[in-house]
Each structure stands twice: as C-alpha cells, then as structure tokens.
Design goal:
With about 250 residues, the protein is of the alpha/beta class. The strands form 2 sheets. It has a 6-stranded mixed sheet with strand order 7-8-9-3-10-11, sandwiched between helices. Strands 2-1-4-5-6 form a 5-stranded antiparallel sheet. Helix 3 crosses helix 4 and helix 5 packs parallel to helix 6.
C-alpha cells in the first residue's frame, strides 16, 4: 500500500447485525481509475460511504496518502478527520445540489466556506469548470431549471472545485435517462484522460471496461475478483463473476 492515495485494509461494516463489508482490502495509486461492479446489495456503495466518512467502519484500516484515518477500527481525532475531507470528492447518484442556490453558488459555496478562498478566486475556479463542462451559459440557473445530465455535470464541477486528490462516483448515471448517460460518461472519460484518480461504482460494464485501469467485482460483502478490465469482465475466473456478467449487456 506504499504511495497509495487511498488504502483500505480488512474493512468491516455491519448494519443491524447484517455484515455488509467483510474483510475488504484495496488500494488506489495516484492516477488510477478503479471501477467497482457487482449486484445490488454487494456492499459497493457502503464501501464508498465508509471511505468518504459518511459511514463509520466497525473494523479495519483506512488511509489517505500519509494520513491514518482509521487504525484497527479506531478513528483519528476530529481535527484529522476534518483535514482529510479535503483529500477527496464524492459525486452522488442523485446530484445533491442545493435547490435554493444558483449553479455558480453551488460550486463556490464550499470553496469559500471550507477552503477559505476569496469570492473572486472561487468564482474564477467555478467559471473555468463550468466552461469545461459545457455549462458556461447556465451559471445563473437554478437546479430545477437543468436537465439531469446538466445537474450531474454541476455536481462533478463542484467536486473538482475542491481540488481533491481522489474523486469517488456512486452510480453517477443511475438517476439519468439513457440519452443523458452518455454525456456524463464522456466527462468521466475526459477526467481519466487527465489522470484524475477515481473510484467509480457503476453498472455500466462497457464503460468500466473502456475507462478503468482495474475492476473489482463485489458480491455478498466481499471482493470476489479483481484485475484488469479485460480479465475480470471478458475472462473472469470466478463462477460468481461469470454468473453476474452473463445477465448483463456488456457492450
């Protein structure tokens, strides 16, 4: 796990006596794109929520770069947890934009409140990202005035504005109509081309094959199989992986 942007070892998490994560270990190096695939209820989203401190691990170790967030199930002090939150960004499947704020305000708020940037600097960063996302003409619009694809692009811009070392995506296209899915996948492909470190929970198997450096297949709270996309998706070793993929369109 040396030089890993993210390192997780022996992670465990239960809800109501049901163990959702069972001895999960993985690491992500700078510039890597890791795709997590698997059936619903396999623990993928819970793993992301634990990695981004939205849920607490029951046991295991979690590190960002040189910062130990969790060691053997024991969390670091609050000031360490606060500091580490600037190391990552999270894009939710349902956008999670503030409905009462404009697009520009959604992107600048955390920059000024968390990073203590000036309004001018925050607005400059937001404008650059909106141009990159093809949304320069929507800066003053409100979320309700945007399509789902536009809202998700704003969410991605908001996360990127914080200069995260790693970006997490939790099923970024699952709330979108099929015709809008392509524009979000194009944005993520562009980030991969720029060597943005990413962990992506996705049901888009073809996308995972084309964009990820590594794929992890999870089922029943464990990592069943991991490796290069061509190996895991096209030539899986596990019967469980083969059964899952057999029911999907992998184009």
């Amino acid at each position: 796990m040396a030089n890993a942007v993210l390192a997780i070892a022996h992670a465990a998490k239960s809800f109501g006596g049901v163990q959702v994560l069972k001895d999960i270990s993985l690491s992500v190096a700078k510039g890597d794109v890791l795709a997590l695939i698997g059936p619903s209820g396999s623990g993928k989203s819970t793993l992301l929520r634990c990695a981004t401190l939205l849920e607490t691990l029951d046991g295991g170790t979690l590190r960002y770069d040189d910062i130990a967030v969790v060691e053997d199930g024991v969390y670091a002090p609050k000031e360490v947890l606060h500091a580490v939150k600037s190391r990552f960004g999270l894009v939710f499947q349902n956008f999670n934009l503030f409905p009462h704020l404009s697009v520009m305000q959604n992107i600048t708020l955390a920059q000024t409140a968390v990073l203590h940037r000036s309004r001018e600097e925050a607005a400059g960063t937001a404008w650059e990202l909106l141009c990159k996302m093809g949304l320069a003409d929507r800066a003053d619009a409100y979320p309700c005035e945007l399509s789902g694809g536009q809202q998700q692009r704003v969410s991605i811009a908001r996360a990127l504005a914080m200069n995260p070392g790693i970006l997490f995506f939790d099923e970024p296209t699952s709330a979108l109509d099929p015709e809008l899915t392509g524009e979000i996948l194009k944005v993520i492909r562009g980030l991969a081309a720029e060597h943005m470190t990413m962990v992506i929970v996705t049901h888009e198997i073809g996308f995972a094959r084309n964009v990820a450096d590594r794929v992890i297949f999870m089922a029943g709270g464990v990592i069943v199989e991991e490796g290069r996309p061509g190996d895991v998706i096209d030539n899986p070793r596990s019967d469980r992986t083969r059964a899952f993929l057999a029911n999907l369109d992998r184009k």
